[in-house]
Amino acid sequence: MRKLKLKAMAKINLGLDVVRKREDGYHEVRMIMQTIHMYDQLQLLMMDTPGIRVKTNLYYLPENEDNLVYKAAKLLMDEFHIQKGIHIDLHKFIPVAAGMAGGSSDAAAVLVGVNRMFHLGLSSEELMQRGVKIGADIPYCIMRGTALAEGIGEKLTRLPAMPHCHVLIAKPGIHVSTKFVYSNLKANELMVHPDIDGQIAAIQNRDLKQIAALMGNVLETVTIPAYPVIQEIKDQMLECGALNAMMSGSGPTVFGLFDREEKAKRASERLKRSELAKQVYITGMFNGGI
Ligand code: ATP
Q1: Which residues line ligand 1 at a C-beta cut-off of 6 Å?
Q2: Ligand 1 atom 20 nearest Cα
Q3: What's the whole-model pTM score?
Q4: Residue of the nearest CA to atom 16 in ligand 1?
Q5: Residues marked as catalytic
Q6: How far apart are CA 45 and CA 41, in angstroms?
Q7: Rounded to whole angstroms, how far apart are CA atoms 143 and 158?
Q8: Mean pLDDT value across residues 40-48
Q9: Most exposed of 64, 111, 238, 280 (fewest Cβ within 10 Å)?
């Protein structure tokens, strides 16, 4: 097959805890990951001449070896000595540098696509083992759905699918670097940790209210003081009836969980009017595989 279309789905973190900072500088995490119905579109084209070419619709994203899709294609094409070339056309919808794993998900989709296009015969697990070399979230982006991520984010345990609800996504007009957040986190001094095990039990019991009540993200301790607009967005979602609202990943995207669509719509309209958020979308959970 010479042409392949793929969807790279975004994620939110229903819970994000940093257990400790390791001696090697990496942070050990416990996160509840959830795929949502928001995606980038990718098209892969096989070329007769060797090489990897990347094109994106966003002028500020790299189109060279710095793009995660380039790294993902190169990893497999080098290992399997693929003599053909590939053209990757990436159309972004997932907000960039937003805590939604957009880049990792693009890379995951390319690993899956190259495996399929060149008939490499790698299993999902084998793709995950390779993906983690490029980014800790990539194995999860291959797995998708509801999962507990431990270690540096690569040790995955599948959880039962989240109960149905409406997800409001709101990203203020700022970009937050994941590196900035983790390097300013005082991981070993955190006084409050989210109850990740309690949240897992709530997911197993399909108890949406309790899942929402136990949402917590220790990275908010760094990002919110630096960017108070995140707290303002959370407050607006809660005032409009969100079961809970929280920053995703290292931010600055905020998501709110709603049991009723009307409430999510009301919050969405209010946020758009307030101009606190530059991008606002209503979406839902995604629990299919890649
Ligand atoms: P995470 O939730 O994993 O921390 P993120 O949402 O914070 O991810 P991304 O959108 O994945 O961050 O991108 C962060 C940086 O990576 C961007 O500033 C961008 O320059 C670079 N990058 C490289 N490839 C991509 C890509 N395909 N899509 C988005 N960003 C990319």
Answers
A1: 61-62, 66-69, 90, 96-104, 106, 137, 178, 249-250
A2: 61
A3: 0.95
A4: 103
A5: 11, 137
A6: 13
A7: 9
A8: 97
A9: 64
